[in-house]
Design goal:
heterodimer; A: about 260 residues; alpha/beta; Rossmann fold; six-stranded mixed beta sheet; three-stranded antiparallel beta sheet; 9 helices; about 20% strand; globular; B: about 250 residues; MetI-like fold; elongated
Chain lengths: ~260, ~250
Amino acid sequence: MNLPKTDFGPAPPGLRVRNMQLGWESRILVENLSFDAAPNSWTCLLGESGVGKSTLLRTVAGLVKAFPGGVFEGSDGLPLDGRIAYMAQQDLLLPWLNATSNVALGARLRGEKPDLEKVAELLARTGISDRALAKSGEMSGGERQRVALARTMMEARPIVLMDEPFSALDAITRTQLQDLAFELLHDRTVVMVTHDPFEALRLGTAIHIVRTGDNAGHVSLFPPGHALRDPTDPALRDTYHAIMDALSQRGTADAEHREACQ
Amino acid sequence: MKLLRPALVFGGLLVIWHVAVSIFEIAPFILPGPVSVLAVAFERADILLGHAGITLAEILLGLLFGTILGASSALMMAYFRQARSWLLPVLVISQAIPVFALAPVLVLWFGYGIVPKVAMATLIIYFPVTAAFYDGLRRTETGWIDLAQTMGASKAAVLLQIRFPAALPAFASGLRVAAAVAPIGAVVGEWVGASAGLGYYMLLMNGRVQTAAMFAALFVLAIMSVCIYFAIDAALRRLISWQPDGDPSIR
């Protein structure tokens, strides 16, 4: 693959998470969650619904206050302010702006003059140049998530947090967007929450499975080979089973019940 | 077809009116028939239009000031936590005291001219505009605000570039209500004390038992109000064309 040059020098910083608590004040689900996202790698967080993975991402992004004692910082030991881009499950495009203005949203909000050349370049790289003037109501789910990806790229932040960004898409579109995101974000540190073991197998350099209950904590897996992997590759079968074992540790009935309650 | 149906309904009502008046032999000073009302309306068109112009000015100025006042109140309440606790009582009181009861006071203070009528219309639409817009500002999709925060947006930028446009559909609902009730404010103001305007003319004709002329004034007022409503509705639709039109409960 012919990759464009990186925006972040030799390597972006990694992410260090220490002693984070997940859950609510009244009911703590996971204590002392600690893990590292290696610089310039793709880290996937898997776990039951309701365990607080999204809250973890939102905390790291500075949107929610952390429980006392929790530490999150760059692997260089510096705070994360201004170094994080955030991509959610919903595309979060503003319906009154066209694709170009949505991609340039960050600059507009900060009162800067948006670099329209870069916007056009990113729309081209995400394959939606022809939709540059379309509003979100006129685009498909896949197109909207491409715009969201371009908007994330536009922010030029070294660490990207993604909260199930592709889960609302159909299988084919999801695979296309995984490929695209992996190519575009190759020079950044990505932490992605996902429900989909195949997505984790496909993209993850490291996969952390967050668990609650008696085995609270997390299991880390490092699938063999390099992304983008083929999840049906027999070499990944063991990792797949390890993921499923780790996920179902607490008994499937409860997990299904939680899923149904969501 | 879109225009034909309301025209048919309107025409049908006129026919029922006409038939009812003829069959029950209602005295013309109680309820004149549509034919005599229309005849008077054409006969006195210049007088009616003169009064209508004044009422229209009152309504439009009231809409303008009420909208500006309501929108800025809502923005202040959304931006400053402090302003909320100060402005909310004002908002509730503005609705708790019936504007009709205030009309004589306003006339006493501002005289018989256009000012108390504009004040009445302003007061009567202040609440729906403020309440609807503030509600819209409060209910912004939290994901948008989160995203803006990670992008390093200031509170003011979030308010003006995200919450404000996101609240426009709610603001539009408030404005539509305002467009429908603003004429009430203006006419009530004219009833209490005026030297011109459709409300004044109606009272004058009532006193002279010229019921047909009174109905003609009412007719002009109704047409004017409907036109104002549809003009504002059309402008709002254009402004928020990005909003999908349709009942979300059906989707």
